[in-house]
Amino acid sequence: MPKYDRNFTDELRERLSVVDVVGRRVPLVKKGQNYWGCCPFHNEKTPSFSVNEDKGFYHCFGCGEHGDIISFVMKSENVDFKTAISELANQAGLKMPDYKPKPAAQVAREESYYQIMSGAADIYQKLLFEPSGANALDYVHRRGFNDNMIKKYRIGYAPKNNVIANKFVNVKQDTLLATGMCRRGEYGMYDFFRDKLMFPIFNARGQIVAFSGRSLDGSEPKYINTTDTELFHKRRTIFGFNFARDAIHRANRSIVVEGQIDAIQMQCNGFPETVAPLGTALTEDHIAILCKANRNIVFCFDGDGAGQKAAARACDIVMPFLRDTSDVKFAFVTGGKDPDEVLKSGGTDAMRKIIDNAIILTDFLWNLANAGFNVSTPGGRTQAEKFLKQKTDKISDVHLRAEYEQEYKQRIFNNWHKWKKQSQNLSKFNLPEVDGITKNTVIFIVNKYPEIAERYGDFLATLGIDFDENVPDMDMDEKSAEKYIVSLKLQKYMLRLQSEKKNLMSKLLAGEDVRDEISALDTRILDVQQKMDTLISV
Predict the structure, then answer these.
(1) Is 180 helix (H, G, I), strand (E, B) or coil?
(2) Residue 298 and residue 255: Cα distance in Å, rounded?
(3) What is the pLDDT of residues 160-170, one digit of tens each?
(4) Cβ(422)–Cβ(467) below 8 Å
(5) How far apart are CA 116 and CA 105, in angstroms?
């Protein structure tokens, strides 16, 4: 069997959830930390097939079969390795590479990169505690970092001179350039990071692959990152994920904040499941990695305009990754603060209150629609409905998508249309009473079939019913439901006509000449009776 590029197979395992891959063939139920189902590799009635999302493996306690997403596709579909990889690549939205054995030279080259990055981190951290790093050390202490935190996260200081270019003078220039730590100038090699507070960026395995440098003199940009290299791809790297992986599993969620300092402070002050994108550039790859670890995510952004935009982008990106096991929420830090400042001023309890008050995705998306469009006008409502449909169409799970669509149909019906408000206003007046069975039936129809309710809104508004009451489900299809509403409308109309005739008959007995009015009324009553008879026969 030929050797294949592990970078690509690792990326598949990183992007695809073993629960999603197995779940396409095996119905799974979550019990405890694992998912369980009946083994597809042998006949059984009692589920003994276990799938672990965090570890990316499945294991059958009945027949002993075990493996990862690749072996599952190979065994369950009886295909070879390359076919399985191709199918998984399609699921992940990745292009199949040209597989070649990984040369020994490449393995050695990558190892040399890791050594340079780790060595640079040691140099930077040592300099942070020397006189040249006094300003940087004072800054990081003022931001609430103690020495233990500095050592754990290997925070350091890049001086103004070319310390890396000089320290690694015996390393081949092309190798040093490939790490992104140095550049080649007119007078030789020079450091990319100078006079910066340095935050190492780790991959999921805890190896340093890049750095993020923060300016100390207020200059912009505030942060600069290593450019993409053979080891480092910004769009696929999550800051703090290596430290947070186990905590995400234990907490059954991840928290996403905007910056490195916020992530570190959150991790060290009661929220170890916190991570951050490198800047505000949250990507599909970031979400794929997080969802593989856990599908419950709390996005915690600043409450300013930039934070709101970042949250809207996160909402847009996360939609295709939603499953019925997902719990996605949005929390906002207001008052011009960020999580770091909240932790300093209010402590863990203040931050926990913000996280606990996070709004669910359905509410957040609904709020976006209401804030972005003038829903008091037909045109604005149309635009808002198109916006919601565009978002929900991204949900790949058809059953979950249908639930979202139904949720928003009911909200649109209950909140955006005038007849509903008219009904609430009319309830203040004495209206014809509706018996309990009729009321419950009408409430069921209104909530189950918003389109019917919209068509007969003017009539429904006259009933004085509170449509927000909970009623039991009824066995009634859409055609029967509309027939019921039309029948009720005709009955109410008939009662009104009969009441008018009664009044006219009283006038006739009193000597008034109202025979023509009574004759015209009889014609209308007969017409309504014929419509009711036709409706019954349909």
Answers:
(1) coil
(2) 5
(3) 999 999 999 89
(4) no
(5) 17
CA dihedral 12, 17, 20, 26 (to 10 degrees): 100
Distance from first CA to last CA of the chain, Å, rounded?
A: 69
**Reported pTM:** 0.66
What is the pLDDT, as a whole number, of residue 5?
53
| Distance from C-alpha of 416 to C-alpha of 102, rounded to nearest angstrom | 60
Q: How far is CA 238 from CA 66, 144, 249, 309, 358, in A?
A: 29, 22, 16, 20, 22
CB atoms within 10 A of CB 135: 14
List of residues 6+ apart from 131 with CB closer than 8 A: none
Helix (H) or strand (E) holding 256: strand 254-256
Closest alpha carbon to 391 in 416, 371, 408 = 408
The H-or-E segment that residue 200 falls in is strand 196-202
Residue 465 DSSP one-character state: -
Q: What does the alpha-carbon distance between residue 469 and residue 283 come to, in Å, rounded to a whole number?
A: 42
Sign of CA dihedral 103, 106, 108, 111: negative
Q: Give the tens place of pLDDT for each residue, 310-348.
A: 899 999 999 999 988 899 999 999 877 889 999 998 999
H or E segment to which residue 460 belongs: helix 457-460
Percentage of the residues of the chain whose pLDDT score is greater than 90: 41
Q: What is the CA 165 to chain-centroid distance, rounded?
A: 43
Which residues, in sequence order, are bridge partners of residue 156?
198
What letters, b where the CB count within 10 A reaches 16 and e where it falls short, cover 320-331?
bbbeebbebbbb
Band of pLDDT at residue 537, cut at 50, 70 and 90 = low
Question: Would you state the pLDDT for residue 263?
Answer: 95
Alpha helix segments (H runs only) across 93-144? 104-128, 134-142
Better-scored residue on pLDDT, 145 or 514: 145
CB distance 110 to 230 below 8 Å: yes
User: How far apart (Å, rounded) are the C-alpha atoms in residues 272 and 251?
Assistant: 9
Residue 223, φ and ψ in degrees, nearest 5 = -125, 140
Where are the extended beta strands (E) located within 23-97?
29-31, 34-37, 49-52, 57-60, 66-67
pLDDT of residue 107: 76
CA 402/CA 45 separation, integer angstroms: 31
Flag whether pLDDT at 433 surpasses 80.
no
Amino acid at the residue 33:
Q
Which residues, including other chains, have CB under 8 Å from residue 221's CB and lie 6 or more apart?
215
Strand 29-31 and strand 34-37: the pairing is antiparallel
Rg of the chain over CA atoms, in angstroms? 33
pLDDT of 432 above 60 = no
238, 203 contact by CB (below 8 A):
no
